[in-house]
Specification:
Number of strands: 26
Strand content: 35-45%
Order of helices and strands: HEEEEEEEEEEEEEEEEEEEEEEEEEE
Distance between the termini: 40 Å
Number of helices: 1
Helix content: under 10%
Radius of gyration: 20 Å
Length: 386
């Protein structure tokens, strides 16, 4: 996979000019946003995304985030692409197409590429297992690596600002200044604190000052201290609930100051106050094996953020839960390679017009856009077994 490195690095330097985009007040949701009482009816948009320029192709989709301008930010994993997929980039070339796209892309709602960047650069270390992307209230872009043990902060045009953690070094779940496989992030606007799902190697949520990178606090499952020696049982034994995280993978924060996390192979969601005080949990298909059911999270766009969406990359579904009590309300999706189906469903994001974006990793390696066609009363839906 390193045979195309030279051409790949050249591709990373390409910047598609666009006006500077500021992160201002949160975009207002469109009228008729789904709620926990009126559930969404989504249909996949078969016309999206358009073909990328420059014969680019995407690898594993490792992060999706819609900013306040309804621009979709993507981070993908170029090193996941095979020589057959990037035949024009290998040395010597074996085909007339294609080339790996740069790791970070910004798209407008029509799918036009506005800017790209990423890869090795001066003043920071870039590993080839990119994971997670988040645009904070100041417009900074946060990215991480599942194998590099650090999180980086950039301007929107790719200028490095800050690194949290020491690249390549993991010192365990109680180390204040080191990370262990960060997966996703949330930045709280009121305090400018970054909450990191530090879960590929470690077993915790860890919080830093987003301006200075200063360590603030951390916690494990149920708000207790993490224990890296804990032996996890798969699948989940509901008679002996796991007391530590398996693969803490997803994280979102809400307007009312709560933190929701997705324990991927633990098949559950847990809820906390921002102090780390544990509130509740919900297991979703606890019998799920493999990589588990709880991949990533997204909130609905109604003022109360009343629906919590859960991306399930093993059962290949999107689950809808009532946020206030984590009751399962509905689900959609199924395994498959056709439009509207999933292979290794991985990431999810929703814009202010309630368009849903999903990203697939593994053998899926694609994005899909879902259009809101209407709503249906929650009372008319038989909740699926979870």
């Amino acid at each position: 996979m390193r045979c195309f490195l030279k051409i790949f690095i050249v591709a990373l330097g390409l910047f598609i000019a666009s006006p500077a985009i500021a992160q201002t007040a949160n975009a207002k949701p469109a009228p008729g946003s789904p709620t926990a009482d009126n559930l969404p009816i989504y249909e996949v948009d078969p016309t999206w995304p358009p073909t990328l320029p420059n014969n680019w192709i995407l690898g594993d989709i490792r992060g999706l985030f819609v900013d306040d301008n309804d621009h979709l930010w993507i981070i993908h994993m170029p090193s996941s692409l095979t020589p057959q997929e990037i035949g024009a980039a290998v040395e010597p070339p074996i085909a007339d197409c294609c080339f790996p796209a740069p790791p970070v892309l910004e798209l407008d709602p029509e799918g036009n590429v506005l800017r790209t960047w990423g890869g090795p650069g001066e003043g920071y270390t870039w590993y080839d297992a990119e994971h997670g992307i988040y645009i904070d209230h100041y417009g900074f872009v946060w990215t991480g690596t599942s194998n590099g043990f650090h999180v980086m902060k950039f301007t929107q045009d790719g200028k490095h600002v800050l690194t949290i953690g020491e690249p390549g070094i993991n010192k365990g779940s109680d180390a204040p200044d080191h990370l262990g496989g960060p997966a996703n992030f949330y930045v709280e606007p009121k305090t400018n604190e970054i909450f990191i799902a530090d879960g590929y190697r470690n077993k915790r949520v860890v919080v830093y000052d987003a301006e200075t990178g200063k360590y603030l606090r951390h916690w494990g499952a149920y708000g207790k201290p993490p224990d890296d020696t804990y032996e996890y049982e798969y699948p989940v034994n509901m008679d002996d609930l796991p007391q530590q995280y398996s693969t803490l993978h997803g994280i979102v924060g809400t307007k009312d100051g709560l933190i929701y996390v997705a324990d991927r192979r633990g098949n559950r969601i847990q809820v906390f106050r921002q102090t780390g005080e544990y509130l509740m949990e919900r297991f979703v298909r606890p019998e799920t094996g493999g990589s588990g059911s709880s991949f990533s999270l997204q909130l609905s766009r109604d003022p109360e953020q009343s629906i919590l969406y859960l991306m399930d990359g093993t059962n290949q579904r999107v689950w809808l839960l009532r946020r206030e009590d984590l009751k399962i309300l509905d689900r959609f999706g199924k395994p498959g390679r056709q439009s509207g189906e999933f292979i290794r469903a991985h990431m999810i994001s929703i814009d202010s017009k309630n368009r849903m974006y999903t990203g697939e990793a593994g053998n899926g390696r694609r994005m899909q856009r879902w259009i809101l066609k209407g709503t249906k009363p929650a009372a008319s839906v038989k909740p699926p077994a979870g």
